[in-house]
Amino acid sequence: xxxxxxFVFSGLTVGAVYALVALGFTIIYNASDVVNFAQGExxxxxxxxxxxxxxxxxxxxxxxxxAIVATAAIGVALNKxxxxxxxxxxxxxxxxxxxxxxxxxxxxxxxxxxxxxxRLPAFSGDDPIHLLGATLLPQSLWVxxxxxxxxxxxxxxxxxTLLGKAVLATANNRxxxxxxxxxxxxxxxxxxxxSAAIGALAGVLVTPITLVSYDVGVGLALKGFAAAMLGxxxxxxxxxxxxxxxxLFEALTAGYISSQYKEAVAFVxxxxxxxxxxxxxxGQKTTERV
Amino acid sequence: MTLKNNWVQLAxxxxxxxxxxxxxxxxxxxxxGALVFVNALSVVGLVxxxxxxxxxxxxxxxxxxxxxxxxxxxPVHLGxxxxxxxxxxxxxxxxxxLLIGRPILRLKGYYLGVATLGFGILxxxxxxxxxxxxxxxxxxxxxxxxxxxxxxxxxxxxxGGEFWYxxxxxxxxxxxxxxxxxxxxxxxxxxxxxxxxxxxxxxVGIDVARFKLQAFIISxxxxxxxxxxxxxxxxxxxxxVAGFMHSVxxxxxxxxxxxxxxxxxxxxxxxxxxxxxILTVFHEYEHLVLGLVMILVMIFLPxxxxxxxxxxxxxxxV
Lengths: 290, 318
Hints:
Chain A: This is LIV-I protein H. Chain A: One of its GO terms (molecular function) is transmembrane transporter activity. The complex is a heterodimer. Chain A has helices spanning 2-32, 39-55, 60-83, 91-112, 138-160, 162-172, 174-179, 184-210, 217-231, 236-257, 265-276; strands spanning 129-131, 134-136. Chain A is an all-alpha fold. Chain A has one domain. Chain A has a two-stranded antiparallel ribbon. In chain A, strand 1 and strand 2 form a beta hairpin. The model of chain A has no long low-confidence stretch (mean pLDDT 88). By secondary structure, chain B is an all-alpha fold. Chain B has a domain at 29-244. Chain B has 15 helices and 2 strands. Chain B has helices spanning 3-19, 28-52, 60-77, 82-104, 109-129, 131-134, 147-153, 160-184, 186-196, 198-203, 208-234, 244-257, 262-278, 286-300, 305-317; strands at 140-141, 236-237. In chain B, strands 1-2 form a two-stranded antiparallel sheet. The chains are: A mainly alpha, B mainly alpha. Chain A binds chain B through residues 35, 82, 85-86, 89, 91-97, 99-108, 110-111, 218, 222, 225-226, 229, 260-261, 263-264, 266-268, 270-271, 274-275, 278, 290, and chain B through 50, 56, 58, 103-104, 107, 109-111, 113-115, 117-119, 121-122, 125, 129, 199, 244, 248, 251-252, 255, 259, 284-295, 298-299, 302.
């Protein structure tokens, strides 16, 4: 029982990160119908930039803020210089463009910073909290709490503000949104900035636990994608539930079956979801019009 | 694309392959050439899948991994000669493609991409984790093909580089020849029809699922044979051959050159294989340049390097 609780805690912690990556996917997918394979690089950038700004002497909150703003700017640049010029291109081209962007960002990080593993100090110390017979790092609470806060903030943004509703309208039907006077170009820019900022924040929160290096992005992107698929592509609630579930599956697999094949869980989940219920847990069934 | 055009392309390629070595300053270039051909062979398979049938795969390195490890493991554990191990790997890949192809190929676009990606990663994970059999991430050595000593006994002395240059070039030309024949056959026409519009193809009585599956299996066999030759040529193999990056490289080569033509595929393979060789001086910047090339080509030359350039020249010239 104690062991189970321990696995649940660690599962929820990584699951919260997957949920944030999945949320980033969802926002960009809704705004532009593009699956952004560079999503994981935003998380990596958030961690790396914070580490280097912090080592350069900036206080941690300021370093984190700098990292989030810088990553958001990179997200906007990605949209402006790589996605928008290729609007209407076939899916294969868009996949190659975003994978190219992820390789480019990784290559640039490796040149600008380095190839080492880096850590950040935990925000509220390293004394474990004893809970339900298991231990929990304070940083885990930061990660889970951060994820919940972001989901609530976004929910308020999408349901309570005019701008949020404009984003939803664009996601629903770009042309109709344009016709009622919504600046869809701005909505795209905003979506990429938001998605990159959320990724970066996830990177800042999780770096004290998992460390960061230039190449952590690919794995995170794929896990986040699996989470988004599980929850139902394009659905923020699905991203949250999918992320947490995937984290739990992984932790339980590592605990009870094989830690070697822990990484395989995400891909087994992807295949299983696609075969059995392609619309995911919360996704809507779409019918194709001819 | 006309029949004549395709055969002309094959002839041009054959001539280039024969003439090129006269410009080689050292034996190292034979090795690089052999590497280009073996990559091009896998890419020709993807041209059939992406260019003919209009399906995508981000997991074909998984089949390359199966082909490669078949050549590494079968001669040791089953005692069969490496040449037959190539066929064994191809057979295993074909059966696996048949089994996973049915459910996977119902998916479209991103979903198909991600499902194939998941398959590829699972294969590379098994290869890395089963240390007892595969040596894990450190890789394992591959027995030699054994053809070169045979040729030497017959009086033909070739260096390793020369041998693989000729062997892989022959394999590539055969692969392209089959692909061109397929393009013109009823099967190839059916594949191209479903690429244009699945609904329209269905209306005229084409079994869409069957031809998608055929394209998938054929391309899996190409990737598997490519992986086998790569393993035999290097004499050593690591699970990276089945990794996500290798899948991405393969698709990028195909799309970079232009999925519409077999010569384009070879050209794409050549560019992406040579790029790291040229950039070794700037090793640090290799990924940066690769990513940039991928983005720029897709935006400015969406048909791929060769067709886009050809179209531009024709447009100016006429």
